[in-house]
Amino acid sequence: MFMRMSIASNIKSALIKTKSVKKIIKFVEERSQTTGKSLIETLMNTLTTIKFDGSCTMHEHVIEMINIVARLKSLGMVVDENFLVQFILNSLP
C-alpha cells in the first residue's frame, strides 16, 4: 500500500492492482524492457536515416550521431566504430 502511495498518480494508474511489491517490481521491469527495445529501435532508425541538412555545423551533426551511439550503448546495444564512421559518411551530402 505504501509503495503505491509514493508513486506519481499518472504512473500509478498504469500499474497492476496488487499488494505484492514483488509483482509490482516485476511488472515495471517487464514494461521497462519493452520501452528499452522501442527506444533502441527509434535510435537505430534515427542513426541510419539522419542526413546533414546544414541547419547546424558539421561538427554538431557528427556529435549528435556519436551521442545516439552512446545512448544505444547505455541500452546494451554496441555499434561498432567502423559502422558509425560509415553512417556518418552516408549522412553527408
Would you kindly provide a written description of the structure presented here, covering whatever features stand out?
Helices cover 70% and strands 0% of the residues. 4% of the residues are buried.
Highlighted features:
93 residues, 5 helices, 70% helix, elongated, mainly alpha
SSE layout and pairing:
Elements: H1 2-5, H2 9-12, H3 21-49, H4 58-74, H5 81-91
Helix pairs in contact: 3-4
Summarize the structure.
With 93 residues, this protein is mostly helical. It is built from five helices and no strands.
Assembly form of the protein: single chain
**What is the terminal separation in angstroms?**
57 Å
Q: Give the overall form.
A: elongated
Largest sheet: none
Return the string of H and E elements: HHHHH
Number of H- or I-type helical stretches:
5
User: How many beta-strand runs?
Assistant: 0
pLDDT < 50 stretches? none
